[in-house]
Amino acid sequence: MKYKKLLIIIFLYLIFLSSCQKEVGLKNSLIISQNSVIKRDIYQLNGKNSLQESVITIEGENLVVDFQGATLQGSNDIPLTSPEKFYGLGILVKGKNIMIKNLTVKGFKVALMAIDVEGLTISHCDFSYNYRPRLFSNQEREDVADWMSYHQNEKDEWLRYGAGIYLKNCNKAQIDNCTITNGQNALMMTNCHDGLFYNNNFSFNSGIGIGMYRSSRNQILYNKLDWNVRGYSHEVYQRGQDSAGILVYEQSNENTFAYNSVTHSGDGFFLWAGQSTMDTGEGGCNDNLLYGNDFSHAPTNGVEVTFSRNKIINNRIEECNHGIWGGYSYETLMLGNTFKNNQKSIAIEHGQKNEIAYNLFENEAIGIHLWSRKEQPKDWGYAQNRDVRSMDYQIFENQFVSVRTPFQIFGSENLTIKNNLIKNAGDILKKDDLVQHLTFEMNDSSVVLAEASEKWKKFAPNITVSVPTDRSNPMLPDNHPRGRKYIMMTEYGAYNFQYPMLWLRKQDSTGRLHFEVFGKEGNWKIKNFKGLQKISAVSGTMPSSFTAEMVKNEMETDIEIEAEYIGSEVVSPFGEITPKGQPYTFVFKKYFLPIVWQVKFFGYEEKIDLAHQPQELSNILKNKPLKEEKTDRLEYRWWRSIGENLPADYFVTTAEGEVEVTGEFEIGVTADDGVRVYVDDKLVIDAWQQRLGQYDEAQHYLATVQLNGKHKIRIEHFEKTGFATLMLSINKF
């Protein structure tokens, strides 16, 4: 904290000097190289089509730039409702000891980027409503095009996803009291050390709250990092798609993550040692401290820590698929945490010398699951260069209350499990014959435990967290919606409770639809609707609910509800403000066009390069199909073969169907590898020479078509190697 005190003294002096500065207006290509006070205004300045040039550059040493609430708005030629098209870099910072405060930037691919800046401070700024992609997963099914991959950032690959703030080689940075919401990624940093990041609100983004790559000895404290999520539909699928509240990758060590609210995110905390560790078995993301955080309500893992050594202490982890997923973790402490209502609380494959103590496990299917696989992947240098047996565990003085199976252990050795309090369990221990040298003593309802917090403090005496004096409480208030059912994904991210929304909660066994109405305090009413009948309520106060029946239509499902809200101020999903007391219109739509698809699969020889030899397709289709089937929807995802005794690679898919509809429609297709879509033999989507999957991501392609009457739709798709998918959607405008 010494450098922080010195910076405060310097900045207070600079602030005094800056008070005499004349106000400056912003303009494109402006370079700020001295202390400046910016005239408060809204500056609509478009960025470049590249992140190599910025609208505004701040460079120099010992600078204070006070924007006084000025707003820099980019992509002014793009509708606010299309943030996936936002482009350009708003602010570029270079130099040393630079303070930026009271700035709003929106409408860019990256709002602010700092490179090689030591002693950067960003305070009381708002970088919300910048780039975020449209999501193609919906309530009924996942679309794999929404998956992200953050495994590499040696060449700034993360920039393809945009960011509110992107820091590179910025040591001793401080970011405080900033807001970044309704984007894809909030704060992303690479090779940044010894920083302090606190009192920020980086919530409701569709990717990452805080991302770190090769960044060490940072303090991440008292931040709101909730609902950084995608890839979830309550009780339908729970994928997360590599979204996370906190992402820690590739040799990021000795960081402290304390007192943060990291709820309702894909993973709460997602740590991976990095590719260099996977290749060599050396290094990792080690000696990080996770203390006093709330990692609850993650679709996947509250905490994922793999191939590394860390401390996970005194955290709250509730209603996750896994509380802690610790694959290949070693010498890791898991102390004093509270686990409730998870499927599995702690799951570790091939872990070593881990200590699990003083935790509370309540209302779980499985408390602690330890296991090993029979064989290791041959392309993992980690497994080839290290002893990766599951072994040497110390598990003691935990409480298990209403846990069906407290311990499930397979293929592990040298374990001591003793003095654990167990109440209302089924099978206390499940194990296989490969478990060796297990000490299992005093694990029942008669065990008397002392106060857990005092125990783990004595067990880990060197754990301290430096707390800022101006800290704020980031935890969700008691009256805030809480639980995975409140992860309600829209086309551009999770619903943030700042605007009215109609949500279809379920369709019951009788076919009746159950809607919920969310929003701030106020009144709502239905103005128009179609495709529904017998609506139980057409007006009410927030929050509310109603039911309705669908009008039967064998040709298509076409439901629309237009409603009006009057009440509190509304901030739309895209940042538009409707003042208090003014009407705000919100709409629910659901469309499905059933098509009887005739699907055929064909194999082809490895030597044929269909991407660059499309003329070979006609010869392939002359052969007998490997497989034929009918389906009413194209939703194929193949991680392995397309069927029993059928290939996983080098195959072609064709699908043909007919529709009879009228109107303007959007056809969307996700494919890996190549795909073409025809309507009445007219090519409308041509993605045959597929992108080669540089980042291991499937691609989604769109086309707008006008249909009137009967039409024939044909899809041609080919798979070369690896993962394969073919998914089609048709939506009505």
UniProtKB/TrEMBL annotation:
Domain of life where this protein originates: Bacteria
Pfam families the UniProt entry points to: Beta_helix, NosD, PA14
InterPro entries to which the protein is assigned, alphabetical: Beta_helix, NosD_dom, PA14/GLEYA, PA14_dom, PbH1, Pectin_lyas_fold, Pectin_lyase_fold/virulence
Cited PROSITE patterns: PA14 (PS51820), PROKAR_LIPOPROTEIN (PS51257)
Boundaries of every PA14 domain copy: 611-733
SUPFAM superfamilies: Anthrax protective antigen, Pectin lyase-like
Name of the featured protein: Right handed beta helix region
